[in-house]
């Protein structure tokens, strides 16, 4: 193995560490409601020149375990989607990888595979050792890390990966050397995560109220109104998005809102609040009761557009279903039909 190849391969260990480092943004917490599932990605490593020379001088050969590979960007480890979930803004969470590194010296072989980065109050990288149990071998320093957002995806660079005491002791013991020291700088890492989920941090859902429905409600003596912080402009009601998470492709999931709609007839007032879009249903609370799927959402002709971190889903038809009509009929002591509420447009801002 050439010195150049050795440097690249050795860097793979760093790459994993770097990936973890990316996740280890200052103050980051473990996985939470703000984390999103990672669908794919990769971590690229650049081995510290001094460390590479030491490995070469001591005849320790390093090679990659497939599917890790060499690329123009260096040693590259693909992300394993299963179990990988990060906060798109801070990179806090867990990032798993496939492949690994193999060390050979003195007739012995040591493999480190399936790197897993865990980020919280401190950040570290662990790996499966020779196909057995896991060991935490790398510490990550993200104090100078830079996070780059590209649409709903996130990348990180400038993470420093260093061998910890456990890793140094294990390597020295296995190969019968005193070469590895705790704190040995392995190198720097750059990582890219492509998310399979969208976590919403804000935005609003507009509902263009159906004219025929407004006329029908008037005929029943029911006057619609708006509940703050929702707003009304003409016949379009807007409800602030408070959170939620959906699949980036299918939109399956939940989008929560504040505010609502009031319906008043004489002394009777019904408040419909806390809208929760869960395609193909809209859950809401009637006078603060248990959330119920009172509205059907038809997204057959919906259009989805993503611009930066802005996600727009338009042309979603909202219609009061049988359960919703029954609840309203009981509240007003009259027959409320299964009317079309209007056409909704979700204008969400991804975290």
TrEMBL record:
Keywords: Signal. Residues 1-30 form the signal peptide. It comes from the Bacteria. This is HtaA domain-containing protein.
